Write the structure tokens for this entry.
Amino acid sequence: MKNRSAIVVGAGILGMATARALAINGFKVQVIERSQFSIGASIRNFGMLWPIGQPDGQLYDRAIRSREIWKEYLNSSSISFNSCGSLHLAYSNEEWDVLDELSNIFLDSGRPVNLITPEQIRNRFDGINQTNLKGGLFSNDEVIIDPRECIRNLPSYLNQNFGIEFIWGTAISRVKPGSVFSGITRFDADLIFICSGSDFETLYPEVFNQQKITKCKLQMMRFVSDKPNYNLGTSICGGLSLLHYKSFTASKALEILKAKLQNELPEYLKWGIHVMVSQNINGELTVGDSHEYGLDFDPFDKHFINQLILDYLKKMVHIDQWRLIESWNGIYPKMTNGKTDLHLEVENGVHIVNGIGGNGMTLSFGFAEEIINKI
């Protein structure tokens, strides 16, 4: 009996994760991508594998499983990565109260976290601003990769190790059970998975009009330090980030911090700004980001948003010797009903997989395995 076949539309991280999950379940897989290479949100991010942002239970477990799969790929391909963890800094008593409470919650659930003092931070990490610093919460879970290098090389790895075929520069214009079409060219398969990211409305617009889903635009920057061998030592986050991730809502003290930030930094909350910096293995520093929501966006970046990000960053890190080398924006789909993902079978054997929000790098591999195992 011949192997069952599957087609995945879209070669972002969620599409490639779905292709891998299909292949390890015995499917012959083709990935069809309209661009010549992956150019979407999968390469326009921090490169953070970020379990700390996921609440205990299924999502945290999914993040840990995804990290395992990433490491299998990275080690097999001799691609460097940085298991540097993450450091959330507190510069107010309200921020410290949240971190103190979270440390107890996370430790009770078995997460590898610990509170550290300003002196310990000064000794372990390079360039942290000590002014008004109360301390930090360090987590050992997080890993930093270069998303551009990793996504660029992932198709070759999937082809060589799982036999997945990639068809580039081919836009799918129509889908029906068992077939997809690029103009008059037809591709057949037993199962079809549409993983088209922020282009979600193209193939099934009537379906997506019924979903609680929107798009998010973020602005980011990349720097290099003029200081030789500069090593930040970990990924850095501030108090604004405590409002952004679901895992932090476990803290009862968070509401007090939120009220404080709404009063003191309303412009930051208006534009969904929370400030983080990660350093890849090449020493480049990725800084961001903001969150604008809608179905269409002004294509131009807003200078004042980047300036707000940098003004806040200076409160956490000394950046006087940093030099801007790139800026960009990315767009990804986001559920508006509190759900963390979207999986629909819209016709017999035709599945839409989308809506994973800004957690694609952190969750996609594990999420895809769950979906395919369930099917």
In short: The chain has a mean pLDDT of 96. The first strand starts at residue 5 and ends at 9. The chain has two domains: 5-47+148-210+339-374, 92-140+213-335.
